[in-house]
Design brief:
Length: about 400
């Protein structure tokens, strides 16, 4: 019985108190420099640290940066002009780059074509001719151009051999180099997304901010307008607006018209996201303080409310740009978007509408490859930015 009572009674625990005086700075001295750097970092720096952990998003960002920078020097990168024709090499297949010939190192070169015409099908048949070794030239003088339409020049990154050819992605039905046209088309297709998202952001932030800040009948009016626009099927709406543009317009004006159309349709989702954010933040103390100090609604929305969720807007932009690129590609593919002589990826794919042509010349589908890569890169980048902007993200 005494043993049971001994187990039930807790043993006495000695309570020890440090007689030394309390030092309020002792906790701060235990914080490491790395922790101090983390505690004092700004929101943008924390986002950058989280974004760097998303390796796929970082690779996508580098890829897109290189791609957009290349549009500034397209004329230098492309071996031919966008409209340069080679009538003797119509629908020629891609040429492969070689380094060795019969076990001997020669350097980068391509084999020339041997050509014959099939009398039965009237089809041009090309084959590499090992007797025609055509070394590539780098940083060479070739076709003259005007860089960005302003600076004259004639130096190219790579050129074919003298009286040789260099068709790394083949040629089209007019003998134009497909690689050069893809490089020139990137300038139009990629900038369509940037210009379109600018129009979309101006409309979305303005109307969404007004709707969330004022509320009442203004909010109801803007929300009903958004519902009407979102009720229309996207592709028929694109087609009707594109067909409404005059046929006699210059291709440059058609390009800007397409970007405005894409921006006018895509702003609705962003406007609702901005409205929900403004509704949640307009009663916060910093917004109330700005209002009491006499700030106008435009300043409160633009200088106080919108910057507080700018990270969300950046992530939304990266996810909206690929949709606009696909929209331009679809319209140009259907013949209602950018028109010749301008070159875009959709215009290039327009030549691949015929199934028989694709079966005979499959390299005409190569312009779809950069479209897929760019859309995937923007989606991966958007996922990384969204995770980095989320304070509750596990990354």
């Amino acid at each position: 019985m005494s043993a049971v009572r001994a187990r039930e009674e807790p043993s006495a625990v000695e309570h020890w108190v440090d007689p030394a005086p309390f030092d309020p700075e002792e906790g701060e001295r235990t914080v490491t420099p790395e922790q101090q750097r983390f505690y004092t970092a700004s929101q943008w720096r924390l986002m950058w640290w989280r974004f760097r952990r998303h390796r796929l998003a970082v690779v996508s960002a580098v890829f897109l940066a290189v791609l957009y920078l290349s549009t500034l020097v397209t004329e230098f990168l492309a071996p031919y002009g966008p409209h340069t024709r080679n009538p003797q090499f119509i629908n020629a297949p891609p040429q492969r780059v070689h380094l060795f010939n019969e076990g001997r190192l020669i350097g980068p070169f391509v084999y020339g074509y041997s050509f014959r015409l099939d009398r039965a099908t009237l089809r041009r048949e090309y084959a590499p001719d090992p007797a025609k070794i055509q070394p590539l030239r780098f940083f060479c003088r070739g076709e003259p151009y005007r860089l960005l339409g302003l600076i004259p020049g004639d130096v190219h990154l790579v050129c074919p051999a003298e009286r040789g050819t260099l068709f790394l992605m083949g040629t089209d039905r007019l003998g134009r180099d497909l690689l050069s046209r893809i490089l020139y088309g990137a300038r139009v297709s990629l900038t369509v997304g940037l210009v379109g998202i600018t129009v979309s952001f101006v409309l979305g932030i303005t109307l969404g901010g007004i709707s969330g800040y004022y509320g009442g009948w203004i909010d109801n009016l803007i929300q009903r307008l958004i519902e009407v626009i979102r009720s229309f099927p996207t592709i028929p709406l694109w087609l009707s607006l594109s067909a409404a543009m005059p046929v006699h317009w210059d291709p440059l004006w058609v390009y800007f018209g397409i970007t405005v159309i894409l921006g006018l349709i895509d702003w609705t989702g962003l406007a609702r996201a901005v409205r929900s954010k403004v509704l949640a933040l307009r009663e916060e103390e910093f917004a109330q303080a700005a209002r009491l100090m006499g700030a106008r609604p435009a300043r409160i929305i633009g200088r106080h409310l919108v910057p507080s969720f700018m990270s969300h807007l950046i992530a939304s932009a990266t996810l909206s740009i690929p949709g606009m690129i696909l929209g331009e590609t679809a319209l140009s593919f259907l013949g209602l978007g950018v028109r010749a002589p301008m070159v875009s990826w959709g215009v290039l794919l327009n030549d691949a509408q015929n199934v028989n042509v694709v079966a005979l010349y499959p390299w005409l589908l190569l312009p779809v490859v950069p479209v897929i890569l760019v859309v995937l890169a923007f989606n991966f980048l958007g996922d990384g930015l969204r995770d980095a902007a989320d304070p509750y993200s596990a990354r």
